[in-house]
Each structure stands twice: as structure tokens, then as C-alpha cells.
Amino acid sequence: MTYCVGLLLDEGMVLLSDTRTNAGLDNISTYRKMFIYEDPGERVIVMMTSGSLSVTQTTIARLDEAVHAIDAADRGSIMTCETMLQVAEMIGQTLSDVRVEIASKMSRASESASAAMIVAGQRRGGAMRMFLIYPEGNFIEATKDTPFLQIGEHKYGKPILDRVVRPETSLQDARKAALLSMDSTLRSNLSVGMPLDLVTVRAGACRIEEQRRIDANDETFQEMSLAWSQALRDAFTKIAI
Question: How far is the C-alpha of 139 from the C-alpha of 87, rounded, in Å?
């Protein structure tokens, strides 16, 4: 399984994903689930994936092939779309096509193939936008009322986001909220695991501001996790009923 979360704020965007993929307790692997396409100052697109690895890898491979094709400008790609809405539509169509193709092959073995994606980005002159794309290719968009999107094992990390994250939340606080959301998920679900991939994008910059890989020995993350656990214990003991 996996956990990916994206926060859309007035100041910018924060995106965080784990890297664990498992097909049973004795078959655990590490695969990157965050993919970045960037023309600094002109366009930045970040995609995060969950679900069937064969579906997500094939989808990313086809999108990447279109980006780097010799005739990319003529055939179209996510790096030539005029708006982020068109980017989401292209990714959704590709994901849907791949899912149907792979599902038809797997149906012979009575297995299913499904995947979802978070797509976020901005092009110069356009607004920052973030979408959750479903296996069928349709999508929903992050809004002022719901400024974050999650895929995968989202239930453990959702409470802190509900309580803390607002459009006016600073990038620094949103970054902390995303990491604490992931920490809660790591503690409660063994199918989500490190290392983590973290990216921040400042509004209007159209480039990656921070890109970081966080492993299990990261001292800053460990200190934050311990501090959060202690803060929860302290708050619990102070509440009277």
C-alpha cells in the first residue's frame, strides 16, 4: 500500500509520499511514487501514485515518453498543455486507458488492477491547481474548503490535517503538518514505509523550492516524531472529563 498527501495553500504547495510497495508480508520493496516534471520558471508538475505498480509505472512511462518524444510539441504532452486542467485530463485519460488494458489481461487470473494519482502544479501565468485522479480517469480538485488531497492509507493521517491545515497556513507549518500526518500513518500501518519524498513549491515560482529524501535515520524527522508523541501524551493527561 502507500500514503501520499498534497497540500494546496496560498503560499504554495507541499507534497509528500512514502516509497513502500508490498505484495504480502514477505515481499516488500521500495519504489519511488513521486515524479517531477519541471521547466524552471515556466512550468512545474508533480505526480504521486498509489495502487497497482504495473498500472502506475506504465502510466508514468507513457507520459514520460510523450514528454521526451522528438515530436512532443506536435503530439502533445503534459509539458505542452496550456492549462493544469488539460494536464489533469491527459493524465486521467492515460491512467484510464492503461488500467483497462492491464485489467483485461489480469482478469484471466481473477485479479484486479487499480490505481490513483495526485497531480499538482502551475504554469507561468496560471493558477496553482491540485487534482486527485481516480482509476476511471475522472478527478476532483483541491479547493479553499478542502485544501489537501490524500491517496492510499489516508485515514490515520487525516485528523491532524483536518484540524490544522487552512489555505492561509504557511508553507513551513504545512510542511510540518504533512510530516506529522505521515508519522501517524507510519506508526499505525506497516504497509506504509520509509524513505519519504518531500517537495515544496512556492506560489508563482513554477519551480521546485525544496526536494528532499527522508530515510529512517533522519535525525530531524525522528526528533519531530518524538516531540509529537510527547505533546500528545502531555495533552492527554491535561484533559479533564
Answer: 12
Question: What CATH number is given to the structural domain containing 148?
Answer: 3.60.20.10
Q: Which residues contact 172 (CB under 8 A, 6 or more apart)?
A: none
All cell numbers assigned to 62: 507513457
pLDDT at 80 over 80: yes
Domain span including residue 210: 3-238
Round to whole Å and give the CA distance between 123 and 84. 7
Q: What is residue 141's predicted lDDT score, i.e. its pLDDT?
A: 98
- Only one residue has cell 520558471, namely 41
For residue 31, pLDDT over 60 is answered with yes
Query: Minimal CA–CA distance to 12: which of 115, 95, 128, 113?
Result: 128
Backbone phi and psi for residue 205, each to the nearest 5 degrees, phi listed first: -80, -30
Give the cell for residue 79: 509539458
pLDDT tier for residue 72 given thresholds of 50, 70 and 90: low
Q: Could you tell me if 49 and 214 are in contact, meaning their C-beta atoms sit under 8 angstroms apart?
A: no
Which residue is listed with cell 506508526? 187
Nearest to 201 by CA among 3, 46, 39, 5: 46
> How many structural domains comprise the chain?
1
